[in-house]
Amino acid sequence: MGNTPPPRGSAAHPTIQRSRSIAKAVSWRIVGSVDTWILSFVLITYLGPSVGLDKSNSEAASTASWIALTEVITKIVLFYLHERFWEWNRWGTTMSGLRIRESWSRTTIKTATWRVAASLDTVLLAWLFTGNLKTAISIGGLEVMTKLLLYFLHERAWARVRYGIVPPNQSAAIKCETGARVAS
User: Fold this and answer.
1) Contact in structure between 164 and 23 (CB atoms under 8 Å)
2) Where are the domains of the chain?
3) Which helix (H) or strand (E) is 1 found in, with range?
4) What does the alpha-carbon distance between residue 124 and residue 137 come to, in Å, rounded to a whole number?
5) Are 102 and 157 in contact (CB under 8 A)?
6) Torsions phi, psi of 8, nearest 5?
7) Over the Cα atoms of the chain, what is R_g?
8) Which of 17, 57, 97, 98 could form a disulfide with 164 if both were Cys (CB 3.0 to 4.6 A apart)?
9) pLDDT at residue 28, as a whole number
């Protein structure tokens, strides 16, 4: 029972505002889209010809751009939903002063579940824009390795950011997102 996380809104756990989830989604999307564009361009340019996808550098750049730009929309939505699920699920979190501490196992499992959903999205988008399943699977497969590391580092960095965290004992003057007042 010692590993049971405190309930939301309890004196031991802060409220995480939706604005934090949105900020995390946007910051991750910038990192993720740059990584996707680079991987897509390199794989379309160098792997594409070996699987029947012969594009010039400018065509490869254009296709990589379409993949990366489209995933900005799909991934922000997916990331926000993923983030809200993990906010709802308190497993592996504790409070340390005004900061939420996240266990390594929580960050690892959170990373893995995000990577599965996000890589499937990338494969589908790459297949849609290249028309070549082998290239799409290659982009999604290589992305797993780069993005696992990048996402893990992103989560650890955000664990140090206080933005969007309402301390559990903050005054009654703070209005919750639902419009209700927080009791002091």
Assistant:
1) yes
2) 15-88+99-166
3) none
4) 9
5) no
6) -60, 140
7) 20
8) 17
9) 86
